[in-house]
Design goal:
The chain is an alpha/beta fold and about 190 residues long. It is about 25% helix and about 20% strand. The protein has helices at about 15-30, 40-50, 60-65, 105-120, 145-155; strands spanning about 35, 55-60, 75, 90-95, 120-125, 160, 175-180. Strand 4 (about 90-95), helix 4 and strand 5 (about 120-125) form a beta-alpha-beta unit.
């Protein structure tokens, strides 16, 4: 993956970040959450502010841009293809708009195995598919596949796919998976 230092320059904290965290907490009831590739930490911040046990990670160059002092001890350097564990596994691991930025299918498969490794139970993946007009709007989207293909890859990583709840924002691009066994391996 290549990094563009200006990628997040127009990124702003929005209500949707808080809404997502509240809705996800209600549905998944996680004790802890890991947000992988959370950019400059909007959802990590939102979850922290509302009292959730959430940590986030992204590339070192991105972590340096995080504007929220409240999450400095909850936001660490990491790569979805090799996620560092911070002492335990997580009840919910979220990869929101990350996988399509990987440069090849082998990296997608490696990332999905990592998500499986660090979750105790659930994974939530947001990925625009070929029917989403936003897929081609971002030149850093490299993996352009159908929803069925993405679901197949998630199942191939040993997740059972659950129906995405109707109240989730952008549910048409979300894939909810549950780990087939309950043992995290961090």
């Amino acid at each position: 993956m290549t990094y563009d230092k200006n990628y997040f320059k127009d990124s702003k904290l929005e209500r949707k970040h808080f809404f997502d965290m509240i809705v996800w907490e209600d549905y998944f009831n996680p004790k802890n959450i890991l947000l992988v590739g959370d950019g400059i930490g909007h959802r990590t911040y939102a979850g922290t502010v509302i009292g959730m046990n959430v940590v986030g990670c992204d590339f070192p160059e991105v972590v340096k841009q995080v504007p929220y002092k409240e999450i400095k001890d909850r936001y660490f350097e990491g790569d979805i293809r090799s996620i560092p564990c911070v002492g335990h596994s997580y009840d919910l691991v979220v990869a929101y708009d990350v996988l399509e930025h990987l440069e090849n299918i082998e990296d997608v498969e490696k990332a999905l195995k990592e998500l499986y490794r660090v979750t105790n139970k659930y994974v939530l993946i947001s990925v625009p598919d070929i029917d989403n007009p936003n897929l081609n709007a971002d030149s850093t989207h490299h993996i352009k596949r159908s929803r069925g293909w993405w679901q197949y890859k998630v199942r191939q990583a040993y997740f059972e796919i659950l129906e995405t709840p109707a109240n989730f924002i952008f549910k048409e691009q979300l894939i909810v998976g549950v780990k087939n066994d309950s043992n995290g391996t961090c």
